[in-house]
Write a structure and sequence with these properties.
Layout: E1 15-19, H1 25-32, E2 36-42, H2 45-54, E3 59-62, H3 70-76, E4 86-89, H4 115-126, E5 130-135, H5 143-154, E6 157-165, E7 176-184, H6 200-204, H7 226-234, H8 252-255, H9 299-305, H10 320-329, H11 333-349
Parallel strand pairs: 1-2, 1-4, 2-3, 4-5
Antiparallel strand pairs: 5-7, 6-7
Helix pairs in contact: 1-11, 4-5
């Protein structure tokens, strides 16, 4: 592989690496912002398969990041210390409760054992010029994130984190996320909100009829009982909720609980969607019903509501839950694109 240092900066795009790449949402946003993504890591084979189908020029490592030596990884990519322009990623966080051994006697909630600190390990070795990290808002209150920020400062990075709504950056869904951006010796500003929002109608309103489109992930069938189908058909179009149903159609679990009012709800055409999750194919998991058709959103619709390009490839499989999980866990490309543009601008100025 050609060493990055041998390519004049004026002749190349800024170089990026995507850790915990999933099916590629972050990489899309980086590419759209003008970065050349050369390397990626993820442990999930199906996600890597999807990633490779769409980003064949990127060298992807299907492995537990804890087993990868950052120096060898950089050498394999032709990167010397300090030559990477941007290290980006979303380390999975398995919740923020204390983990214990089976008998509960030993507290093993050691921040140095967390995947967030694996990201830090790569920063310390590669010394990228800039860093972008995205995660759930709850991480802001966790001691592991405090430790991460302190260590980043000690090794020379000027960083800041904010909790932002992806809907403010042309992602057609409400999605509050923590994003941390830092530069080695310089600060990286956050992107300004777009000033308008993209609606459900703009994202999926022009799609062909599901089941007849020729797109495998738009045509995947769904199975519902007759009673559930009848209940769905009675929910008012364009934002209706299960609370609009006559009492005899309420499920027993809903009668006993005053919360979770979004379940079995329809999306509204001229609003953003709710947060797209790994359960987005199941109306019992949230407001995931189509605005007017009597079905849950399709996997293609879910991908578009996450901001994926219309032709993004997903594996042809009958396992809808596996595809939904990949899509729900992905980073929305327009959100990443907006902030990656700010990173690129800061890199050019420093």
């Amino acid at each position: 592989m050609t060493h990055i240092a041998n390519i004049p900066k004026k002749n190349r795009k800024p170089i990026a690496v995507d850790l915990f790449c999933g099916c590629g949402g972050l990489t899309i946003g980086l590419k759209q912002a003008g970065f050349n993504v050369i390397g990626a890591i993820d442990i999930d084979p199906l996600s890597v398969l999807t990633y490779h189908e769409n980003h064949s020029s990127v060298k992807v490592y299907t492995e537990d990041i804890r087993n990868i030596e950052p120096a060898l990884f950089a050498e394999d990519l032709g990167l010397g210390k300090g030559e990477l322009d941007l290290l980006a990623g979303c380390p999975p966080c398995q919740g923020f409760s204390t983990m214990r051994t089976l008998n509960g006697a030993l507290d093993i909630d050691d921040p140095r054992n967390d995947l967030l600190l694996e990201f830090l390990r790569f920063v310390e070795t590669l010394e990228p010029r800039a860093v972008m990290l995205e995660n759930v808002p709850g991480l802001a209150r966790d001691k592991r994130f405090g430790y991460f920020c302190k260590q980043m400062q000690q090794i020379g990075y000027i960083g800041e984190s904010r909790i932002l709504d992806a809907a403010d950056y042309m992602v057609p869904q409400r999605r509050r996320r923590l994003i941390y951006m830092a530069g080695r010796g310089f600060s990286v500003p956050f992107a300004n909100p777009a000033g308008k929002r993209k609606t459900v109608r703009e994202a999926i309103g022009s799609l062909p009829k599901a089941g007849e489109s020729g797109d495998p992930i738009h045509d995947m069938k769904e199975k519902r009982s007759r009673r559930i189908l009848e209940m769905i058909s009675m929910i008012p179009h364009d934002g209706g909720s299960r609370t609009d149903l006559p009492g005899e159609y309420w499920l027993e679990c809903h009668k006993k609980c005053n919360g979770f009012k979004d379940v079995y709800g329809r999306m509204a055409w001229d609003d953003v969607a709710p947060t797209i999750t790994g359960g987005c194919f199941n109306p019992s998991k949230g407001r995931f019903l189509h605005p007017e058709e009597n079905r849950a959103i399709t996997m293609r619709e879910a991908a578009l509501l996450q901001g994926f390009p219309p032709k993004y490839k997903f594996p042809i499989t009958t396992n809808k839950s596996a595809i939904a999980l990949m899509i729900g866990n992905a980073l929305p490309p327009p959100f990443i694109k907006a902030h990656a543009k700010s990173v690129k601008k800061a890199l050019l100025a420093n």
